[in-house]
Amino acid sequence: MKLSTGLRNALLSGGSLKASLDGGEIRIYSGTVPADADASIGSATLLVTIKNGGSGINFASSAASGVLNKASAETWSGTNAATGTASFFRHVLSADTGASSTSAVRIQGTTAVAGADLNLTSVSLTSGATQTIDFYSVAMPAG
Length: 143
What we know:
two-stranded antiparallel ribbon, mainly beta
């Protein structure tokens, strides 16, 4: 996973990852993966926006063993807006425009069926179908 400059600055200034991204959403795209989380989405196609019903998504109340998980009581899902092959995601705040930014708070990662930052049951998404994320976590390395 790649953290944006905005998120890294927030963490280094005494903020928490949870406080920085709670209430946000995960956007899953097809197309070329941007070089980093500061870069513009470019010509990538938004396939689905994942929320908790009509609300933003949240992390669990606390981390354990260096891992912060999805809030277990929440149902993270969205209706696919387009058909395509998921190649990457961004965990962002709802106001994020996808433009190049060094102040936007973002996590960017790859998607696949296995071995990616975000593993999905299938990376072939079909417009109108429901996409869910049952498991999501962010880990900080021990050293």
